[in-house]
């Protein structure tokens, strides 16, 4: 996808790759979505989200439409990079990086899900480590944020292990029911001591230019 730079970006670690979410990769991953393997107990997503759609084919269609809309929106302070998580050649989930007033504050947040078939292997932590490396080392961010329902113990544990600090709480809904969310904050200063030397970034410069991130603005 040389004609659309965000789709050419890759992040590689010893355990997995994050590959720009091309339509071909999304088509492969659609079977995981159709099979309902994005679900978890307790429910991890806030409203609204296409992954809660009960009809499998409509769920896939809505999921694809949401990604297409999201990757088409690229503004100085609002953009989203979508990645398919690939393990041993198999698409197993998604990991996104969302610029939040990035040109002003250098801040971003993340979103991810992993197929039920591949949980419990440390991949969630590895995915988050990879996307943080892209945000801080590749894009020069100053700060990352994350949030998770208080009963999403896996996500909250990953944030804690990777150096995020608690940043308050808030309320949201999931399938119409109110639930409390933990908010987390990771500064560059807290990330730097945990920087890994075994994560590689590929095909990034064209994407940086596409997002209007000049070398002069790079914060690394």
Automatic annotation (TrEMBL):
SUPFAM superfamilies: Acyl-CoA N-acyltransferases (Nat) (SSF55729). PROSITE patterns: GNAT. Transmembrane segments: none annotated. The keyword Transferase applies. It comes from the Bacteria. GO terms for molecular function: protein N-terminal-serine acetyltransferase activity; protein-N-terminal-alanine acetyltransferase activity. InterPro entries: Acyl_CoA_acyltransferase, GNAT_dom, Ribosomal_N-acetyltransferase. Residues 16-187 form the N-acetyltransferase domain. The keyword Ligase does not apply. Keywords: Transferase. This is N-acetyltransferase.
């Amino acid at each position: 996808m040389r004609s659309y730079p965000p789709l050419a970006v890759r992040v590689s670690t010893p355990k997995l790759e994050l590959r720009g979410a091309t339509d071909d990769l999304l088509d492969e991953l659609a079977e995981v979505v159709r099979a309902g393997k994005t679900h978890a107990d307790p429910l991890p997503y806030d409203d609204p989200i296409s992954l809660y759609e009960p009809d499998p084919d409509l769920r896939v269609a809505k999921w694809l439409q949401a990604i297409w809309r999201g990757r088409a929106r690229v503004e100085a302070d609002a953009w989203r990079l979508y990645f398919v998580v690939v393990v041993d050649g198999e698409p197993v989930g998604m990991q996104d990086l969302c610029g939040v007033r990035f040109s002003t504050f250098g801040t971003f947040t993340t979103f991810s899900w992993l197929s039920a078939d591949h949980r419990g292997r440390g991949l969630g932590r590895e995915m988050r480590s990879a996307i943080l490396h892209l945000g801080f080392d590749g894009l020069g961010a100053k700060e990352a944020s994350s949030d998770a329902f208080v009963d999403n113990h896996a996500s909250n544990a990953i944030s804690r292990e990777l150096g995020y600090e608690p940043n308050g709480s808030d309320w949201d809904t999931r399938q119409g029911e109110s639930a409390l969310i933990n908010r987390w904050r990771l500064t560059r200063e807290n990330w730097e001591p945990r920087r890994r030397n075994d994560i590689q970034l590929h095909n990034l410069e064209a994407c940086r230019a596409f997002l209007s991130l000049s070398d002069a603005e790079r914060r690394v």
